[in-house]
Design goal:
elongated, 2 helices
C-alpha cells in the first residue's frame, strides 16, 4: 500500500467518525464517553495523516 493510499484510507475513516459523531450528537441524550472516544480517534487519525504527509 502506498503512502497516498494509506492517507486516503485514513481520510475515509476520519469521515466515518465525523458521521458517527454527528449521529451521537443528534441523539436526545448524547453519551459524553462515546463522543470523547470518537474525538480521540479522529485526533489520532489526523496526527497519523500529518506524520505521513511530512515523511
Amino acid at each position: 500500500m502506498s503512502v497516498q493510499d494509506r492517507i486516503q484510507t485514513l481520510k475515509s475513516r476520519h469521515e466515518e467518525l465525523d458521521k458517527k459523531l454527528d449521529m451521537e450528537n443528534a441523539r436526545p441524550m448524547p453519551d459524553d464517553e462515546v463522543i470523547r472516544t470518537i474525538k480521540h480517534e479522529k485526533l489520532n487519525l489526523k496526527d497519523e495523516m500529518a506524520r505521513m504527509a511530512h515523511a
